[in-house]
Amino acid sequence: MANPSIGDPERQLLLKNGLIVDGSGKRGESGDLLVKGEKIEAISASSIDIDCDTIDCTGWVIAPGFIDIHSHMDSIMMLDGYENLKSPFTAQGITTLVTGNCGYSSLGLQPDPDKPGDETAVHTMEEYVAYVTKVGLSHNVVTLVGHGTSQMSIRGMDSSPLEPEEKKVLHRLIEEAMDQGAAGVSFGLGYEPGIYARKDEIREIAALAAKREKIVTVHGRAYSGIPASAEKDELPQNVVSLKDNIDLARETGVRLQYSHLMFAGTTSHPTYRQCLDVLDEGIADGVDIMIDTYPYHCGFTFINVFLPAWFLAGLPGNYHDSASVERVEQTLSLMGERMGFGFGDIQLMHINHPDYSHFSGVFLDEAARELGIAPTRLVVDLSEKTGGTASILNHNYSNMEIIDALIRHPECLFMTDSLVSTRGLQNPASFGAFPLLLQYARERDLIVLEEAVRKMTGASADRLNLKDRGYLRKGLAADITIFDWTRVKDNNTIKDTSNDPTGIEYVFINGRPVKKDGTVDDGIRAGKAIRI
């Protein structure tokens, strides 16, 4: 059997009579586009006459393939098979996934001394590229090195400050990954062990990235608008988090991407204006910072996001310390009052424990009622029994006013912040984020077609220093998404979250048709591991 990752370098394909929107933001023009092998061979406003396979694109937009600048498909992309977990991203027009976000990656790891000579192990960027290339990729993959996983490979979840020798090892792992082609570093400051990271530790690693002209992405410490204390004029926590990261970028000169700007709970929603003002002030001051967003009011995360750092630092002992459990439950009970975010906003996705696995799709308050326990207790139980891996979909992260403002903001890029699971409720962003962004842009008249495409393609490529794709230009990689601007839309609901979109007609990755006539061909592995 022929290798499904190899295409014919001489094969030509003509896309005729489409509206060519090239990813730069300039106005689209009707024309033809010729693909030869993996590259764009020609683009012309007049007819290209050549005898080859042809697709009539009349009434459709021919755009660069969409770049998901914040994905969590790391482990899925390393699987041989399981194409059903990857094809939803193809179906919505995505050709390149940026993985390794929120401090977690599949590389930059210290080898486990208890597993010497493990030939299947992946530690370095070099090993990662070799491994996924051998497996075969459904998409192009750009990866960051995760600060959290690099640190975990050295000293686990220990919350104490790094020892000097540990810091040297951590820096070496991160530098090595970047030098071998990782796009930059990600921090997950709302998750273990990033939640314990000190500002000086973060600054030192950001400086390593800045020296190499690499990007740093940050999941902030807080997405809540409640003040850090009761003092008069105290700034909301989410504003403080954003300001801290602007200071980080200012002090180190690093190119910083502030991940998935969100506003947890109704009391936080009004603070979006303050956050955008702070962002604009930083940009006006010369700080190189951008943000990204998805078009839903919900977001995927894990149950431990609700547990404070002091409780996590004492695990597993704190699970069995009645005073600690009582204290954390008291804190959880105040969420609704303080944040406008309650247990009815937490939807259970996949719970890897037999006592709770049947609650997929159920909201946490409903599950607690059925079990006859307090929802605060259920949060702690889910954390303990799943080792913190219970996946959840948090709702009430925004409203339409916020989504509209973020889509319009010139420094906001688009992403899914997602992955697909083998079981349980799915994140709708895995199936419909980019179609819904286009749908909102069109129906709500937020931004013009060309600007929507730019945010999904050229602007994201520029942000990553990705040189060979993101635009429709002669000689660049033939990553192409063809869609119907008048019909493109998301088809998901709160309870039914894994529906294919409407209006994404064709998708090409490195010149190969991975979606045609509206149907994904998940047997084609046309993607590449991209070094930056």
Verbal overview:
This protein is an alpha/beta fold and 532 residues long. It has 17 helices and 22 strands. The longest helix is centred in the N-terminal third of the chain and has 16 residues, at 164-179. The two termini are 32 Å apart.
* Terminal CA distance: 32 Å
Number of strands: 22
Oligomer: single chain
- Stretches where pLDDT is under 50 for at least 5 consecutive residues are none
Feature tags:
532 residues; alpha/beta; 6-stranded parallel sheet; 22 strands; 18% strand; globular
Short description:
This protein has 532 residues and is an alpha/beta fold.
Outline the fold blueprint.
Elements: E1 12-20, E2 29-36, E3 39-44, E4 53-56, E5 61-64, E6 66-68, H1 74-77, H2 87-91, E7 94-99, H3 125-135, E8 140-143, E9 145-146, H4 147-155, H5 164-179, E10 184-188, H6 199-211, E11 215-219, H7 237-252, E12 255-258, H8 272-284, E13 289-293, E14 299-302, H9 309-313, H10 322-333, H11 335-339, E15 346-348, H12 364-371, H13 375-386, E16 391-394, H14 400-408, E17 412-414, H15 429-443, H16 449-456, H17 458-464, E18 480-483, E19 504-509, E20 512-516, E21 519-520, E22 529-530
Parallel strand pairs: 1-4, 1-5, 6-7, 7-8, 8-22, 9-10, 10-11, 11-12, 12-13, 13-17
Antiparallel strand pairs: 1-2, 2-3, 5-18, 14-16, 15-16, 18-19, 19-20, 20-21
